[in-house]
């Protein structure tokens, strides 16, 4: 039964302070109970204008901050994130629903990005060429782009903001972070900790809102760059709108990730990986495995091993340490996820395990489901379900597996399981996908590489975080220099003037 007792107001975080202004609002839920726990107010047009103007003002001084000042702040911030790890994980679990262990995992992957940003002196180094022509030198510098809008999804309410915020402010930009309205509190806490670490007021602002707020940010003339992570239709729209309004944009979208199991693979290892990558965080990861591709005759055995493991999973509240995964984000999403299972039979799919019995529980729970025999043209194969539903596709051989992966309109992640290094090497070269795991089911790059998919999983050419992050948040200047000897110079500087 849903309760609505004293939900707290979730304010914006503007100019170093919490700010409760706003027009329309939305309820924030605890997905494990279905209770309303907060009310988040959306910025209206006037507030967006005010915040962008303040951000532009803050940029004038932050762009001139020394690299050592930025480095000290980021080191202090890193320390505060570590000290507040339990509190931050609690906030994530309370609004997103993922388990406390997953919330800690999310924090540590976000922390990596702060650590990478701490090396900003190295990342922002320019180049220098001496004597390119007689008496002429050339050097390059990278300068911040300006005011960055960072728009983030619900499924990693701390990590994805850290992907963007750490590198953007390290590069001298000012950020307006518009987190998901479904779990907005982690972003506020992140901003408070950055202020505590010494970040000047107004360099990071958290502005809550919905699609209308995003539209205002995308079209605002004083925003210079947009980093977006979310679903594919919105990513496409964000990229097209932002670039049409003269901004640089990177927009990461949805996914349908395959895990190809070759006939020589260790099927116990593969089944363990499929369980973790398919059902972990209730399948609400953009790098989750949603399709296991069984190559050759291994299908029956592999399905049996995955089903045995799925039967042992415990689904429960994220703050219960015995839960393997928690609820999904909303009631509407739970019902949508369940519809792929209830509709599977009609599509000719065998439902090996049906997780819809959990729908009767309070909260937004759906159990693990395993669908055997999915194929292109079926909704359960074509759509990004974004829930604990794992499909198995059966193909005859390696070529058919690669074709299946490459024909898919998404290209975020893919994994291959095999004991054959040569086959794995060929696979890595043959697939049109941005991130590839060899016996690694969720190949999210470490922070010193960049994250990005291909095809409908990324709009724009720049991947996010790592070296491409620094590149996206800066623009190059090249300075060509010549110091001719002044013809009227009377002062003897003590070196031969003829040189
Ligand atoms: P979403 O697209 O619904 O929302 C993302 C952000 O866009 C939110 O801040 C939201 O307020 C805003 N938004 C929503 N609708 C909008 C609209 N019509 N116009 C403008 N802005 C809008 O995504 P979500 O449901 O929060 O997150 C899940 C999706 O994100 C999945 O598709 C998942 O695959 C994807 N995702 C991708 C990556 C990646 O790195 N590629 C990472 C995490 C999540």
Short description:
Helix 2 (67-83) packs antiparallel against helix 4, helix 2 packs across helix 7 (185-196) and helix 3 (85-96) packs across helix 4.
Topology:
Blueprint: E1 8-10, E2 12-14, E3 17-19, E4 25-30, E5 35-41, H1 45-62, H2 67-83, H3 85-96, H4 100-117, H5 120-123, E6 128-133, E7 136-144, E8 147-151, H6 159-170, E9 174-178, H7 185-196, E10 204-206, H8 211-219, E11 225-229, H9 232-244, E12 248-252, E13 257-261, H10 267-279, E14 289-295, H11 299-311, H12 331-342, E15 350-353, E16 369-372, H13 379-382, E17 389-395, H14 398-407, E18 410-411, E19 413-417, H15 421-430, E20 435-438, E21 454-455, E22 458-459, H16 466-472, E23 474-482
Parallel strand pairs: 1-5, 8-9, 8-11, 9-10, 11-12, 13-14, 13-19, 14-17, 16-17, 19-20
Antiparallel strand pairs: 2-3, 4-5, 6-7, 7-23, 12-22, 15-16, 18-21
Helix pairs in contact: 2-4, 2-7, 3-4, 4-6, 10-11
Residues 151-156, 160, 178, 180-181, 210-211, 214, 229-231, 234, 237, 252-255, 286, 384, 386, 412, 453, 457 line the site of nicotinamide-adenine-dinucleotide (NAD).
């Amino acid at each position: 039964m849903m309760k609505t007792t004293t939900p707290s107001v979730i304010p914006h975080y503007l100019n170093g302070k919490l700010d409760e202004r706003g027009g329309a609002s939305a309820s924030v839920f605890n997905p494990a109970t279905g209770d309303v726990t907060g009310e988040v107010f959306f910025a209206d047009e006037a507030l967006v204008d005010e915040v962008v103007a303040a951000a532009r003002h803050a940029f004038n001084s932050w762009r001139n901050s020394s690299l050592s000042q930025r480095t000290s702040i980021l080191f202090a911030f890193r320390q505060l994130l570590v000290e507040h790890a339990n509190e931050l994980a609690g906030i994530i679990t309370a609004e997103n629903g993922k388990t406390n262990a997953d919330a800690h995992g999310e924090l540590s992957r976000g922390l990596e990005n702060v650590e990478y940003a701490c090396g900003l002196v190295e990342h922002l180094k320019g180049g220098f060429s001496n004597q390119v022509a007689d008496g002429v030198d050339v050097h390059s510098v990278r300068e911040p782009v300006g005011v960055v809008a960072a728009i983030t999804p619900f499924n990693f309410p701390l990590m994805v903001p850290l992907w963007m915020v750490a590198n953007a402010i390290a590069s001298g930009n000012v950020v307006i972070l518009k987190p998901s309205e479904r779990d907005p509190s982690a972003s506020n806490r992140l901003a408070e900790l950055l202020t505590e670490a010494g970040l000047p007021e107004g360099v990071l602002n958290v502005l809550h809102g919905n699609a209308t707020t995003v539209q205002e940010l995308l079209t605002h003339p004083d925003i210079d760059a947009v980093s977006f992570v979310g679903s594919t239709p919105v990513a496409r729209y964000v990229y097209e709108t932002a670039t049409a309004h003269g901004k640089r944009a990177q927009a990461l979208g949805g996914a349908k990730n395959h895990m190809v199991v070759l006939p020589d693979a260790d099927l116990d290892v593969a089944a363990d990986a499929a369980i973790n990558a398919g059902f972990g965080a209730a399948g609400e990861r953009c790098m989750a495995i949603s399709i296991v591709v069984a190559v050759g005759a291994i299908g029956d055995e592999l399905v049996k091993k995955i089903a045995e493991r799925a039967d042992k999973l415990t689904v429960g509240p994220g703050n219960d340490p015995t839960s393997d995964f928690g609820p999904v984000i909303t009631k509407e999403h739970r019902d949508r996820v369940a519809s792929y299972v209830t509709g599977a039979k009609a599509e000719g799919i065998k439902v090996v395990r049906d997780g819809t019995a959990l729908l009767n529980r309070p909260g937004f729970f759906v159990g693990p489901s395993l669908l055997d025999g999915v194929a292109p043209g079926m909704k359960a194969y074509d759509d990004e379900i974004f829930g604990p539903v794992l499909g198995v596709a059966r193909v005859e051989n390696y070529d058919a597996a690669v074709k299946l992966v490459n024909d898919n309109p998404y290209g975020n992640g893919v994994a291959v399981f095999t004991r054959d290094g040569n086959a794995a090497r060929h696979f890595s070269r043959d697939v049109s996908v941005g991130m590839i795991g060899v016996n690694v089911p969720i190949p999210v790059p470490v922070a010193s590489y960049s994250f990005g998919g291909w095809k409908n999983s990324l709009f724009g050419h720049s991947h996010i975080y790592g070296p491409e992050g620094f590149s996206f948040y800066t623009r190059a200047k090249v300075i060509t220099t010549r110091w001719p000897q002044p013809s009227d110079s009377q002062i003897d500087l003590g070196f031969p003037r003829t040189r």
